[in-house]
Amino acid sequence: MAEQDTEVPTLYAWAGGMPAFERLTRLFYARVDDNPLLAPVFARVPKEHARHVAYFIAEVLGGPKTYSEQNGSHAG
User: Fold this and answer.
1) Is residue 38 packed enough to be buried (19+ CB in 10 Å), middle (13-18) or exposed (0-12)?
2) Which of 8, 21, 31, 53 has the maximum number of C-beta atoms within 10 A of its C-beta?
3) What is the pTM of this model?
4) Share of the chain above pLDDT 70, in %
């Protein structure tokens, strides 16, 4: 039996790509205000932060380098 040359998908691809991460972060941030523990922590976070976080998570899980290209990398 010949060995197949199959590529293992990244977690990014497996999860559904950028639309999945945008939805995940959008839904999370939409519910933060209703959570007494999280609401004060995120009180001053701008709405566009959800997309910023989506790009970060996507990149860490094997997606495009959009976060690094737009924001640079964290110093450290």
Assistant:
1) middle
2) 21
3) 0.80
4) 89
Q: Is 38 helix (H, G, I), strand (E, B) or coil?
A: coil
pLDDT in tens, 31-59: 999 999 999 999 999 989 999 999 999 99
Kindly report the length of the chain. Answer: 76
- The type of residue at 16 is G
C-alpha to C-alpha distance for 71 and 24, rounded to whole angstroms: 21
Nearest alpha-carbon partner for 17 in 73, 57, 67:
57
The answer to whether the beta carbons of residues 10 and 62 sit under 8 Å apart is yes
Look up residue 21 and give its two tokens: 């991460």
Q: Domain 14-71 falls in which CATH fold?
A: Globin-like (1.10.490)
